[in-house]
Amino acid sequence: MGRRQLAVICGHKDWEEWKEWKATSIAGDDFAIRTAMMTESERMLQDSSDSSEYWKAVGQDHPTLRLLIHRNNIRTEADIAAHSSTEKAIAESVLALTTLGDRTHMITIFRAVYNSDP
Asked: pLDDT tens digit string along 46-62?
């Protein structure tokens, strides 16, 4: 959900279309493509007048944006939860994260996606 919203903010139809477009416009592996997507996201979120303050906070927090865009176990598990859970259940899962940094980043992403605190 968060990746799709970010793709739309950056002017793309969805995550998959954005990633494919980047893959054809830059040379490099998956990491290089996602890094280019991060750069574009930071710029778009900073310059956008349509983005919520929560999304702007994601764009200003490099580790949080990296967690959202680059592959990692937490985000992968969150995708599974997002497709099969309610907002309340996702909020509870985010708040239950035990690693402080991961929890902080996921709270920032949750706020951007749902426009509220978990």
From this structure: 888 888 999 999 999 99
